[in-house]
Each structure stands twice: as structure tokens, then as C-alpha cells.
Specification:
Number of domains: 2
CATH superfamily of the largest domain: S-adenosyl-l-methionine hydroxide adenosyltransferase, N-terminal
Structural class: alpha+beta
Distance between the termini: 49 Å
Order of helices and strands: EHEHEEEHEHEEEEEEEEHE
Number of helices: 5
Oligomer: single chain
CATH class of the largest domain: Alpha Beta
Largest sheet: 8 strands, antiparallel
Helix content: 10-25%
Radius of gyration: 20 Å
């Protein structure tokens, strides 16, 4: 599989500094024809789980051969490995701290490489900015078609994160909030497949009791709560024209219960 020339970036660097621009500059010096797409640079600092979720939900909408680069790296300069993972469809590059793992679920992995070949790094490697000095150049070289085997040796195990699985309790589904998006929607770990045949149900979240599963946000009047299957395929608890997170003072881990009628 050849690279498509597309490189995605997911980081916690924010947009006020020059960190993202430095990474893009390195990529373009090595591959001026690269197409760089920002998944997000607003991941909360060191929030590996948030970055992993965003990458998981985004990567399936890119062409075959895309290089996905994720750098949320609290252990930069430490003992954690730098990874290059090739699947049948795409490439993933980032630190071995779980940030790539959710996106890899369900994919056929061809090889996993620990990146060690300094030939593909910048000449001077900072101990605090491997995103620029190691990961960005490696992504650029992969996008030019360099064989992944050139970058290091294969490894068998990587750090993996797990989305907590919902539980079935007496016919009801017990889940929890796993992400809160920029609109204040509460994304749960209850995938649509758990709600097959449960359209007629009651959703309990905080002090909200939502009497049905809707199709769209506007199925509920403005200012009223709504529960639906969001674009990521998971149950969401939302507030039409408002923030469910703010009103419920919700955080990741908040229980959400789906009661069968």
C-alpha cells in the first residue's frame, strides 16, 4: 500500500503558539506535495483518551493510504517508544501511550515498528518536542513512500486504551459519559448496537429523565434535553440549543442509564 500523500494531525498543542506550524513546516520541507489536514489541536493538555477518541472517529473518513499522526505525549523524552503502525488501509504514527490504540481497533495490522532510525529524524532532536523532530519527519517520509521497515524493528505489543463497556443489568443498559464535545453534548459508551430494538426506552442522565430516543437534536423543543445516536455511532445526551455538560455539571464517567419500557 502506498501513501495517499495525506497527513492528518491530532495534538494538544493549541493554536496560540507556533508548535503546529513548526510540525507542518518540517513535513513540507520533506514532502512539499503533502496534503495536511488538522483533526484537532484543541485536545486538553495531556488528555490521551480524548485524542484517541477523536482520532478513532476521524480516521475512517480519509482515503486509503492516509498517514495519521497523533502527538499527545506527556512522556516525551522518556522511555515510551515512538510507533509507526501500518494497517491494510493506512498508517499511524505517535507515542506508545495508547493515543493510537482506539483507531486501530477492528483494523488488520500488517506491522508495528518502533521508530529508532535517526536517519529520518531532524539533525538535532529536542528532548521536549518529538512531534517536530521525530514524528513529523517520519510522517513526511512515509507520505513519500519510504518502506516502514526502514524506520526500525518490529514490536509485538503496544499500550492500548479501552472504552469502558456498557453493562446489561436486568434488561437495562448501564453506560457512562466518555467524551464531552465542543457543543456540550455528552457522548456515552453505549453504541447504537446496544440499543437495537430499544427505541421505546427511557434515558436517565443526572437529574434528567428523557422519555424517548430521538433522531435529531431538533426533535426536542429548544432548551429541552434530547437523547440520540450521534455521528460517532454512540448514544448522546444533549440539550437543544444549549450545553448538556454545563446544565448537568457533567464530566467524563457520569453514569447514563437506558431503561427498557
Amino acid at each position: 500500500m502506498q501513501s495517499s500523500g495525506v497527513i492528518t494531525l491530532t495534538t494538544d498543542f493549541g493554536l496560540q503558539g507556533s508548535y503546529v506550524a513548526q510540525m507542518k513546516g518540517v513535513i513540507l520541507m520533506i514532502n512539499p506535495d503533502a496534503v495536511i489536514v488538522d483533526v484537532s489541536h484543541e485536545v486538553p493538555p495531556q488528555d490521551i483518551k480524548k485524542a484517541a477518541f477523536l482520532l478513532m472517529t476521524a480516521c475512517r473518513f480519509f482515503p486509503r493510504g492516509t498517514v495519521h499522526l497523533a502527538v499527545v505525549d506527556p512522556g516525551v523524552g522518556g522511555k515510551r517508544k515512538a510507533l509507526l503502525v501500518q494497517t491494510t488501509d493506512d498508517f499511524f504514527i505517535g507515542p506508545d501511550n495508547g493515543v493510537l490504540s482506539l483507531a486501530l481497533n477492528g483494523k488488520k495490522i500488517l506491522r508495528t515498528i518502533a521508530i529508532t532510525n535517526r536517519k529520518f529524524f531532524l539533525p538535532e532532536v529536542s528532548q521536549t518536542f518529538h512531534g517536530r523532530d521525530i514524528f513529523a519527519p517520519v510522517a513526511a517520509y512515509i507520505s513519500r513512500g519510504i518502506d516502514p521497515a526502514e524506520f526500525g524493528k518490529r514490536v509485538k505489543r503496544i499500550v492500548r486504551l479501552k472504552i469502558p463497556r456498557p453493562k446489561l443489568v436486568k434488561g437495562n443498559v448501564k453506560g457512562e459519559v466518555i467524551q464531552c464535545d465542543a457543543f456540550g453534548n455528552l457522548i456515552t459508551n453505549v453504541h447504537a448496537k446496544f440499543l437495537m430494538g430499544r427505541r421505546n426506552c427511557i434515558i436517565l442522565a443526572g437529574d434528567w429523565k428523557i422519555s424517548r430516543l430521538s433522531r435529531t437534536y431538533s426533535d426536542s423543543p429548544e432548551g429541552q434535553p434530547v437523547a440520540l445516536i450521534g455521528s460517532s455511532g454512540f448514544l448522546e445526551v444533549s440539550l437543544n440549543r444549549g450545553s448538556a455538560r454545563e446544565v448537568l455539571n457533567a464530566e467524563v464517567g457520569m453514569p447514563v442509564l437506558v431503561l427498557s419500557r
